[in-house]
Structure prediction request, 210 residues.
Amino acid sequence: MMSLTDQLKWRYATKKFDSTKRLSAEQLDYLLEAIQLAPSSYGLQHYKVIVVENPEVRAKLREAAYGQPQVTDASQLIVFAAETNIDEAYVKSFVDLVAETRNVSRESLAGLEGMVLGGIANRTPEQLLLWAQKQAYIALGILLAAVAAEGIDAVPMEGFDPAKFDEILGLKEKGLTATVIAAVGFRAEDDAYSKLVKVRRPQSELFIHI
Prediction:
């Protein structure tokens, strides 16, 4: 069995997917559960994840992603959309979920609620959005590790027009904005990029030990 680091050496940002190969329902469920388990600040999960499979929608998204073929050719397109309205109601809903999930009284979580509310009160709307977007990137990282562990290919993508994605997917009215996307599936045999040696800075240059 390959180690995670071996799998990470195997993975690459897939440029050409085999459009005839699809993830099984079990594989997709595994990836979505991994995303669901991703850490986030306070555990708020400041984003939603849109799984796009509809061919017509994906064709429109490809145009908004500057024609990149991975958007339509991969098995699924995963859109991480940051929450744009992290407010008191959002926090209270989170605390309600904590109480229900852990079977504890709502009153016993007053300290947690106060801490989180204080955390959002000290941020401007712009800072709150940036905070949410950072959490979405953590979830993306978990996805990329999960696909590598399962021998599934993926490519994280920032090359798209967020405003057009928001319009196509109806995200603005949901209090969301597209932040980063990832196409998941299986590499085409003739993707030349899969044969390239991975280039990374040596550890002596990357890590600083203090």
In short: The chain has one domain: 4-87+125-206. The beta strands are 47-52, 76-83, 153-157, 176-185. The radius of gyration is 19 Å. Residues 82 and 133 are 5 Å apart (CA to CA).
